[in-house]
Structure formats: structure tokens, C-alpha cells
From TrEMBL, chains A, B, C, D:
Signal peptide residues on this chain, from the entry's feature table: none
Pfam families: AP_endonuc_2 (PF01261)
A GO MF term: isomerase activity
Top-level taxon: Bacteria
Full protein name: Sugar isomerase
Amino acid sequence: MILNKEQITSHNQSNFDKHDQSFDFLANNLTNKGHDVENILKKVGDFQVAIPSWALGAGGTRFGRFSFHGEPGTLEQKIEDVGLIHALTKSAGAISLHIPWDVPEDAEKIKALTKSLDLKFDAMNSNTFQDQPDQKHSYKFGSLCSTDDKSREQAIQHNIDVIRLGEKLGSKSLTVWLADGSSFPGQNNFQTVLKNTQDSLQQIYKTLPEDWKLFIEYKPYEPNFYSTVIQDWGTSFMLANECGPKAYTLVDLGHHLPNTNIEQIVATLMMKGKLGGFHFNDSKYGDDDLTVGSIKPYSLFLIFNELVYGMENNPQNPYPAWMIDASHNIKDPLEDLMQSLEAIRSSYAKALLVDQKALREAQKNHDVTLCQEILQEAYLTDVRPLLERARVSNGGALNPLDTYRHLEVRKKLVDERGKHTMATGL
Amino acid sequence: MILNKEQITSHNQSNFDKHDQSFDFLANNLTNKGHDVENILKKVGDFQVAIPSWALGAGGTRFGRFSFHGEPGTLEQKIEDVGLIHALTKSAGAISLHIPWDVPEDAEKIKALTKSLDLKFDAMNSNTFQDQPDQKHSYKFGSLCSTDDKSREQAIQHNIDVIRLGEKLGSKSLTVWLADGSSFPGQNNFQTVLKNTQDSLQQIYKTLPEDWKLFIEYKPYEPNFYSTVIQDWGTSFMLANECGPKAYTLVDLGHHLPNTNIEQIVATLMMKGKLGGFHFNDSKYGDDDLTVGSIKPYSLFLIFNELVYGMENNPQNPYPAWMIDASHNIKDPLEDLMQSLEAIRSSYAKALLVDQKALREAQKNHDVTLCQEILQEAYLTDVRPLLERARVSNGGALNPLDTYRHLEVRKKLVDERGKHTMATGL
Amino acid sequence: MILNKEQITSHNQSNFDKHDQSFDFLANNLTNKGHDVENILKKVGDFQVAIPSWALGAGGTRFGRFSFHGEPGTLEQKIEDVGLIHALTKSAGAISLHIPWDVPEDAEKIKALTKSLDLKFDAMNSNTFQDQPDQKHSYKFGSLCSTDDKSREQAIQHNIDVIRLGEKLGSKSLTVWLADGSSFPGQNNFQTVLKNTQDSLQQIYKTLPEDWKLFIEYKPYEPNFYSTVIQDWGTSFMLANECGPKAYTLVDLGHHLPNTNIEQIVATLMMKGKLGGFHFNDSKYGDDDLTVGSIKPYSLFLIFNELVYGMENNPQNPYPAWMIDASHNIKDPLEDLMQSLEAIRSSYAKALLVDQKALREAQKNHDVTLCQEILQEAYLTDVRPLLERARVSNGGALNPLDTYRHLEVRKKLVDERGKHTMATGL
Amino acid sequence: MILNKEQITSHNQSNFDKHDQSFDFLANNLTNKGHDVENILKKVGDFQVAIPSWALGAGGTRFGRFSFHGEPGTLEQKIEDVGLIHALTKSAGAISLHIPWDVPEDAEKIKALTKSLDLKFDAMNSNTFQDQPDQKHSYKFGSLCSTDDKSREQAIQHNIDVIRLGEKLGSKSLTVWLADGSSFPGQNNFQTVLKNTQDSLQQIYKTLPEDWKLFIEYKPYEPNFYSTVIQDWGTSFMLANECGPKAYTLVDLGHHLPNTNIEQIVATLMMKGKLGGFHFNDSKYGDDDLTVGSIKPYSLFLIFNELVYGMENNPQNPYPAWMIDASHNIKDPLEDLMQSLEAIRSSYAKALLVDQKALREAQKNHDVTLCQEILQEAYLTDVRPLLERARVSNGGALNPLDTYRHLEVRKKLVDERGKHTMATGL
């Protein structure tokens, strides 16, 4: 199913007057405070976040999976789903594939489909945290870290294969996320598995095309774990340094111990030129993969405050890759993703409103009260009219969720695909 | 130092036009969405939060204390400080005393001063977590929980004395917070100290005047602790039930283990008619006593969402006592308190904007996407014009912080009191 | 497969001399210190822990399941597996069934098999956290808490059915564990779902036979959750009180927020006569369901210290139900369970060695150094010879793991059952 | 007060027979299992842990300080206290000074006293986390990270002064611990303060004598904090690398977020040759500074397992500096320190008992059950007779605590020093 522009713009009409009033009032206020509204609009409009192919169906839990109706059953349908979100939001201009779930039968056809929907291929994702049915050597006891040469070589080769496939599609990066670790003290020799992981990553790195990047994720724990090999940003950063200049750390919001100051990690990595990418989600207790901004929106704003600062002041750091990495168990995945996208853009827009000059001055004077006021002045501003305007200017929906429901997209997907389809992957 | 109304209103003039525009725009929007703006204004304007007497000076840390200039050195000066905040914000209409730090020499004079500043006496606070210079029996190994009869009796009597003093001043409640607990496994017999605490509270409860309430705080830990006797709301709730209908649980935001769902505790207590009071602050790691709303403003909003629901739907629960319980180490305490007050009122106002009827309907339909939209619609609204209007209507400052600085209040306090005064207490 | 006693005792012979020496040395030491070794041996020997039927196969994770060879495919085989563990350890004298996974075709035959292996039926477990293939109404949005009457009634009836089945088998208790909760703020009205849960539990309670108990588990979170309905012991305790005297709280070690003082919860519940049962496991980060004692053995000892105290001093509390609730992903489940059993018995034995009289005295004198010494004196004692003796006296193996491997039990199970069997359930 | 050897050895006599029996039994067992008991005895006997000068008096909390009787009032008395502990335990052969609390009036005299007690000077500790009475520029808003040049230069110079003083005394390292950070979002620019800290450390590093080391501590938070500049090992490691080969990371057990896998950090740092030192303590909730081994002794064992492995397999890592960094509020500090020392030595001895060869083999075979058995075999061994023998062989007390009480050391200290002395420093 493909949404055409007319459907969207015609639905926009009904709410346009109200939007205009709100936007004018806000723009006027911001201009009076010295903001360059056009510039902010452009930045927000340009901000694109990748959707991973596995996020388009219902996720599973330990106990089962309540699948959603009309889930995409093929790679083509997954791309179409991202196309739908992008048509409505104009902020989901990329898809991130997961191999082996998304191996295309015909790469050229897939490229053409993707291009027709105005989508790019974001980072490729390898998978060595599961055994595939046809797999020779098991990852039960680790993959890139494995002390079994054959499992380890197979995992390295899989990553190289993913790079090769990504080249065909036009992707420019590989994200490596490992569930390698141990469930019990003594199970692994920490130094051995870290060394193996470093060697494996170096071998993968060697095959990386000149214009590619390698993103190394970290994560402190998985359920039923005692340790993970790449437990924190420090380990990822160390490994990226051992690989070389094209290797970077990837930060996933949910992959931290309780109370971690994530925005400080972001600042440190950008200062060192090593923040490669970002996975968005939210959480209350652990790695809950909830809708972005649904639990701790102020934290997200503080992180964007560092990202905005880094993007403006750290030429040593490349423009990061952005992706949503949430799980959708009880909401329509497409609705959920649109809520996430809006939360991301909202935080970005608010961070752009921070008066950096005044903040620098207040910091210099140790006027802590004022520092807080400056951040909150930006955060408390209702930027929704701005997000709407940026979207509409790019041809998207004033209110994507509302339009999605009005156009009965899910119903049409079920009609097309059937009720009990099930997305491959997670 | 006492602020007169003219100083405040004259400073308001300069910003009134801008405020009017913003308020009208917001009020118009809210009215169109079906909100009763007058009613919301009244509720927000009526909302009063107590300031504890110990919050007016700089707090200490383990390593020392950077004292602030012009701190109040006497009870009268503390009351004056609260009066200043109240004159500016019209939302700090009560002071909460801490005994023995605030024993008045002349109760009637203190009552008159307090009344003249339009302040009430909120809950009285006893102190059995420190040894006072003249104290006969030490609380080193506990107070109300103590296995030493003399320490325990002294602690009970102290609480009774605090009630008697409170009666003279016109307070209507006693808050009991204990640092009773242990540093090491085995140090205490858990059952013995819990039983002792229950007995002690019951003895104090017996002397409570008919129209008083007893608030029992809980807290999972202190630095250098292995256990606290009243470690969680369950223990406090159990003790309150053992005392009787005038005993309630008091919730302090900072007194929880990492990731606790505090709003759910609030809902449960209100349903059971046992939420007596609330201490506001914020925290990143532990019981950090930071400015309200400075770290997790959305959590505060979710808590207020439950409070608003409970105040409207739980006649079994009395109107709760509200107090700020933060520590001020690097900001001017008065500025810090004004920021806290604004964050509280902001959360309250936003919670009042939640469309309860639509939420109930969405919950019934399991429309989880919509439930989230409804909460966020309220939260994302910029309610600052509303807070301003409610304040100005009551005679306060449009922008309290700005007015405070414009009127050079701190400078005048230093002139009056001297630079190196030091608040008694913490 | 059934182990006969001769196989076990014959393998014991080879290590008996060494055991005798160690035991005599330890028993002599303990006797000199005033311990009644015979009494301790009897208590340890009598201590029986239930094995849940779902623990006998490999557990799953979010990403897949590495199944183990020779897993039991039927209820009979599960019972046989527990029989094997019990024959070796003489401490796993009960099985805890999970419905609908374990509905017997012929209850009498199952009872006879169980009896022949010297096993009892521990608590019955209902399952309303998953949708079964044939189920009319979904639990996607809750079961006992559901706002959909039909889902709720179905969940209540299921629990009643489980009780009826349990009566046929000779079980005496029902454990209710719920995954009821929400993923997002606003999704549930906290008060409504708590009231519904209370009503549902009361309806189930009403059908409970006179000599049965109802165990109510609590748990702060599940992955992808924002709240659970029964989030802590306080909520469970409150619900148990609302049900009546046969309702109790059940404590699962893994179901707590970081840093919770669990031993204090145990002490409080026993003092109030409301500790119904205990689920053993261990964890590093969250609810990891690792082998008991593999991560925090001293915590387990401190918990047993409270359990031993409560069993001796709290006649108001019934003898608790004991169960292992761990997940087995990378070890042979039977080996894993034997390690858990040994850790439990070790902690129990050490807790029995605590010199309660000396501890009471040291507590009274606030001799905190000595309190710690007394606990550690017990904990540091190597009680393994004592555990061996208690086991051998009851006809078990000196070293169960060693015997299990020597007798090639797993190999024989694979021969009997085939390599790729898969246990029903989790 | 100085203990002479006769007092100690004469008290040993009474318990010698019992010790001999226990030791012989244990040594025999260990020898049979293939251990080289003499070698283990030597290693344990040689293991020396520094006592910091601030640990000899009662510590403070937020609310006050219950001081202990007979606290050392001068540097000489602090050294004497360490001498007492060392005489009894033969494992506290060094003192770690804190400047400016411990500036000696006569360095040579102090050196002579220290030598006479068989003590060395461990790492020097600078203090820029407090303002001293005579200090020109405040550290209220940071020291080495400060944006105020004068505060920063003063802090750098202080560290250089401490190095110079350390050279006079014969110390060989400087430990830098900072409370630099912020209480509120926006207060600091993360990149600026990190850069400043790096610059400052580099300036200090430049003045380091050739044979000295610089230890950089990290810590995620302090009470009332939102961020610390050196929040984790990754940041410390990065800074150490920026300084040079003589700069190392220092790990303090209490300075971690909840659930951190510290043993893995230890392994990583040793593999990279960057583990400089270790501060021992224990905690239940945060940075509680409790007696070593009083809360999580198995974690300590796992850490020592990595330390032992690293000391044997990582020639790239220097021998680490060991120090106790606990706080003593309710126990006699000397007793508390002796308990800590014993817990450290116990963990070290048990780690030495791990059968590394068998463990390597089991890891290779993914025999996870056996890996756990091997670690626990070592951990469950009661090594107390071994610790006694190592101590007695070096001239120490069989049972230091018992001897300390028998000889009424504290009473004599009170007689000498008076009841209400108070240690300088914390």
C-alpha cells in the first residue's frame, strides 16, 4: 500500500487554520526572543531517522507474542510500511535492514522500490545472537568472542557477507550488536573473550569499504546474564580505537545501568570524535524498548542538547546515524513509530531553542539558577506548531496519527495482507 | 525584610502586555478544547506548598558546607524568608517547623508574625536522627526503634513535646521521619526494632489531638546503611494501620529505590485513604534533594495525574499536605525554592488539563496509542501563562525570579543580616 | 528412567573415607562450640524444596531457545526427572505443576507415579500470562485485573479449575503470579486494575478448600513494562489481608528492584504471619532466574537467617512452601537444579549455625563488631560434610553431581527420549 | 601506644592447639588436592593493604557525627594506630596520607616513626573537594575542572605540592579523587570541564618523578549531584591514556552504578596494563563505605579471582596499590579495619585456591556447571586456619580482634589520649 500525496494534503486542509494561528503565534514569540525560525524549521525538516525492518511487526516477550494484524510478511512489505510512515511524517527517510531476516531476492528491485518511496538504506545489522535453522556452528556460547574457532569464523564471515550485501544496496555502515557474554561467574575468561572480540572486529573492519563506518554497540546485560563482553561505552570506545578511524561507538538509550548519565557519555564521545550512531527508545526499568519519549522525555531533551552542541562544535565527529530501536507489543507498530518520531523531533527542536550564548555566559558566572532557567525555557516551549510546519512544508501530514487513522491505513493493510500475517525476525 | 505589594506590582507592569497576549492565546485554545479555564486558574491559585524552615540556608554534604550569604539566623528570619517567597509566588503559604531547631521563645509573637505574612503552620517535624548537645540519651543506635528503653522513651517524649508545641502554634499534624536502622547485617533484630517502632508510634498517636494527623515517612536507605526500619510504603502503611485512622503514610519523592513506580504507590494509598502528605524534590541517583522538576519533570506530572485523580475521586482520602524537601548547596535557597514551586504548579496545572473522560474511554477501548496522546497533549502544553495569571490574580509577581533579582532581595538580606550568618539546622 | 538405590550407594563407597574424616572433624568442632549436630543434621535432612515442572527443560530468551537434549516431553517424564533429582539429593521431595501445561490425563496414575518416587505435589500454578491456542478471550490487556469482564471471568474460572485439579492430586495450595500491568503511562487506571485484581482474588479465595492456602506473588516489572499491578510485597500483603487468613504473600528472590533488602521483607512478613512461600533463584541485574547461590550467596544466607529465626519464633506464620524458580539456558537443567538445591541447603545449614543467643546479647550491647563476627562465623564454616552426611543418611548420593555424571543419566535420558525432545511450557 | 610482640605471642599461646589441628587438617586436604600450601601461605602473608589516615576516627554523615573515644588527634597518633593494627594483623604495612590533614611538621621524624613500626607510605592523597580555612579560591564550583583559572591553578599546585611532600616521605604515587561535577543539568558544559580536567591532570603528570605513578579515581555520583566529571572507568582510562604510561585508573569498589560488573572492569584494565590501584569497602545501596566483605563477600572473591589472574598473566600491568577506603560510624575504627583486612585476605586466599588449569579446561569445553563448581570449591573452603598461620608466622596475632580486646587497647588509647579527642579530616 502506498499513500499518495493528495490523500494527505486533502486531510490537512481541515486543520490548517488552527495550525496557522498557532504557528504564527509561536514563530512570532521565538523571533522576538532572537531565534531564526526559518533555520530551525529547516533543521527539523531535514532530520531523518531510520526505521529498522524488525520494528514493523509485534515484538515478543518471554512468554509469547500477541501478533498484530496486517503485519508485513516480506521485505517489500516492510519497505512499504516505512514508506507509509515517511509519507505521513517526512522524517523516516531510511530503513535499516537486519540480515538474515531481510536478504533481498533481487537487490536492484529492492533498491528501486526504496528509492521510489524516497527512502535510503541506513546501517546494515548483522545477527549473531541467534542460531538460524541452516547454521553450521552454534552461537550458544558466543559468536565474535567465541573460543570455538569455527563459530567465531562463521560469525566474522557473516558480518563480512552483510557488508557485501550492504554495498549492493547502497548502505554505508555496519552495526554490530552482540549478545555475547556469560550467565555465570567463571563461565568465560573475561580477557580471552574480549581479546577474541577485538580480533574479530579487526578482521571485519579490514574488509570495510573506504566510505563505510563500523558501529559497535554496547550493553550491560541481557536477561539471564552475568556479563556481556561489551558492557559499556568505555569498552566499545576502546574497541573502536583498536579497529581504526572508521570504527565508532553506537549508543542505544536502553543499554545502560540504572541512573547512568547518558548525555555525558554522548558529550564525551563527540568530543573524542567517536559517536557513530544513536538508537532511540525509552524505558522505565531495564532495556524496555518502549516508545521514544514515553517515560523520560526530559532526559531525551538533555541528550539532544548535547547532540546539538556536538553537531555544531565538534567537526571531529561525523554526523551520527539515527535509528529507532523500540519494540511494539500492544500498539499498532506504525502508530507507535510515529509517536517515537514525533518525540525525537520534539526534543531536537527544543534543543535547538536553547540559548547557547546565554547558557555559556551563565555557566561562566556560576549562575546555576539561570542555567536551569535557560534549559527549561527551551524545554517548556510547546513546539508542536513548529513540527507541524516543518512536516507540512515537506509534503507530510499536519497530524500523521490522525491522518493514518482517518485514511484507515491499518484496515487497508489487513485487507491486502490478511489478518494473521507475521513479520519475520523478532 | 518584607516585600510590599507595590514593589511587586510595579515590576509586573513592564511585562504585562506580553503576558496578556500569551494568556489570551492559551486560554482561548484551552476553552476551545473544552477546558474550564477559570476553574483551573482557581485551583492552581489555591494550591499552597509548605516550605520547611531548614531549607532556607545552604545544605551540607559529607565533606563540608559552602554557606550562602544572608542566611536566616533566627526563627523570625526564617519565617520572613518564607514570607518573601510567598509574597512573590503566592504559592508558599505555609512553613513547616523542625524541632528543636525552631523552638520559639514567644509562641504568640511568632504566630502573629506568621499571620501577618499570610502564612500557616504546616506539619511539625520532630528530630530524633541527631544527638542534640543537651541530650541525655544518644540516638546513635536508634530512637523510636531503640532497644534501650531510655533512648526510646526520650524519643517518644520528644515527639509528644513537638505535638504540644504545634498545638500552641496552630499546626495540625506531626511528621515523623526516622534514620533508625542499621549499618551491618546482624546489628539489629528486624522484628524487634519494627515492633519497638510500632509501639512508640502508637504511644505518640495516643496523645494526638482529635483534629491532628500523624504522617509516617519511609525511606529505603541512608548513606552508610544496611537497613532502615521503615524501608518502604508497605511498612509505613502497615504502621499507620496499626496506629489508627489519624495516621497516614507520607511520600517523599527521593525516598525510593531506583526505578520505583511512585505514581502507582500514590494511587494505591489514595484508594486506601492513607496518603497523608507529600514531600517534593528531585534526584538523579539517590536521595539527592535537588530542585523539584530539575531532573524528571514527566514523572512529577504522572504523579500529579494520580493526585488530581485521587483528589477528585477518593473522598476517603483527606486533602494531602504538600511540602518541598530539597537541599540547596549551590543556588541561592530562595531562588531554588521559587524554581521548585513553579515546577510543582506547572505539573499540577498540566495534570488538570488531562482529559479524564477521553482517557477513561481510551483505556476502556485499550487504545494505548490514544492514552499516551491524551497524557502528552496535557504535558506538552506550555502552561506558563496560566501560572502567571493565577499568581498575579492573587497579588504575586508575574515572574518571581526576575522580580527577586530586580528588587535585589538577597543583597538586602545580606545588608540586614550580614554575610556570614548561618541557618540553624541542617 | 528411575535410579535405584544400589547405583547410588555403590558410587558413594569410593568417597566415603574422605567424607567420614571431614565430617568427624567438622562435627567435633561444632560440638565443641556448643552445637547439637544431630539436630542440625535432622533439620537439613528434612528440608525439602519443590521443583516446578517447567524447570526441567531449557528456558527461552527474547531471541530464541537453545534446547537441551533428552528433555521431558510428558508430565510423566517431568515427574521422573524430579524423581531422579530427589533420588540423588534427597531434598527435592515435591513437584509444582503448572496448568495448562501439566494437565494429567489420568490423575490417579500420576499420583501413583509421584508417590512411588517419594514425591509430593507442592503448590499448583495457574497461567493467565499467556494466551493458549484454544482460549476464547485474550489476556493481552490483563487477566485478573482486566477491565473486560469476559477475560477477567475466564481468568478467575481458570484459577478455580486449577484448584479443583489440585484437590484431585493432593496439592494444598495455589500460587497466583500475574504479568498484569501496563507498558505505558495512562494505559491503565491504577485504582481500577487494583480493585479488579482484589475482586478477582477474593472470588478465587472463596472457592479455596478449608486446608488450602493462596499464595500471591509480586513483581515490580517485566521487560517492556511500565507498571505491574502487584508491584511489591506491600501490595501483595494488602491483597492477602483483603482475601483472608488463608491468603499469603509469596516472595520470589528475583522479583525486586535493585538493592532491595529482601531479608527485612521476610522478617516483616513472618512477624505478621503472612509469609506463605518462597521462590529461590539468583540474579545479577534483574529477574535473571540464575542458579540459586551463583551470584549473591551471602544474601541468601542472610535471608535464611531470618527464615530460621521466623520458623523458631513466629508460631503465627505457617511453615513456608519452598520452590526453585530458575531458568536453565546453558546448563543441563538437572545439573543446574542440583546446584541450586545444594546452595539452598548450604545456606540453611549455615543459618542454623548462627549462635542466636550470643547474637541477641551482642545486639543488646550494641557490639556491632561482634554481631558481624557471629554471622560470619556461621557463614564461613565449610558445611559441605554436613550436607553430605544428611543426604547419605537419607539414602542419597554423597556427591549428587558427580554421581549423576558417573551414572551417565543424561545420556540415558537421550537414549530413552531422543535428542530433540522439547519440554512443554516456557 | 605501641604493642610489643610479647603481648601478642603470649596471648596466642592459649589458642594454639586448636589452630594447629585446624591448620593441619586444612593443609592436608589442600595438599591432597594438589595445592602448594607453603606458596599460598607466603603470598597471603606478603599481602599488605594500606590504611588511610582518615579511617582512624569516626566518620560523619549528613546529620552529624558520633565520635569515638580515644581517636588519634595528631599524625603521629594516626601512624601509631596503623602500627597497632599492623602489629596485630601483619597485613596493614602501609599508611596513606591525606593532605592537608596530614602535613608533618618534621618529615624525618615521621619517617622514622613509620619505619620503626614497619610501615611504608602508600599513595599520597590530595584534597580539592573541600575548601580549607586558609584557602584563597573556592572549589565550590570545581577544582581541576574549574572554569575559573585561579581555582584550577590552585588545585593543580596543591597536587604538585602533595607530590613534593610525598617525595620527602618516600611515597611513590599520587591518588587524585575529585568531587568535581554538577548538581543540575546545564550547570556545566560537559566537554569544557572534561577538557579542563585533562589539561590539569597533564600538568600534574608532568611534575611526577620518574618512579612515581598517578592514580585517577572515578565515581558516578555524590549525594546532591547530577554529574561527576570522571564518571566511570572509561573516562578515567581515557584520561590516563592522555596523561601517559605512569598514569593509571584506580578502582574503588563503592564507586559504581547499581549492578555494575566490577570484576570485568578489573580484568579489562589489567589486560590493558592500566589498573593502578584498588580501594576496598562494601555497600548495600550506594557508596556506603561499609566494612569490606560485610555485604557482598562473593563479589569480592570474584574480583580477587580476576586480580590473581591478572597478577599472574598480565606482566603489562604493575603490581596494584591496595587500600581500605571505608568509613567507621558505629564500630571502633580499629576493630572495623581489622575485620576489613581479614575479609580481604580471606578473598585473596580463596582466589589463590581456584584451580586455574581445571577452570581453563572447563571453559574450553563449555562445561558451565563445572566452571561454577570450580569457583565455589575454592570459595566454600574455610580458609581461616590458613590466614591465622600466615599471620602468626609473621609475628602477628592468631586472632587479632580477640587479642585487641584482651589487651584492652581501646581503653589504653582513651587513657592516653582522652575521651573526646577527634580525628582531623573526615
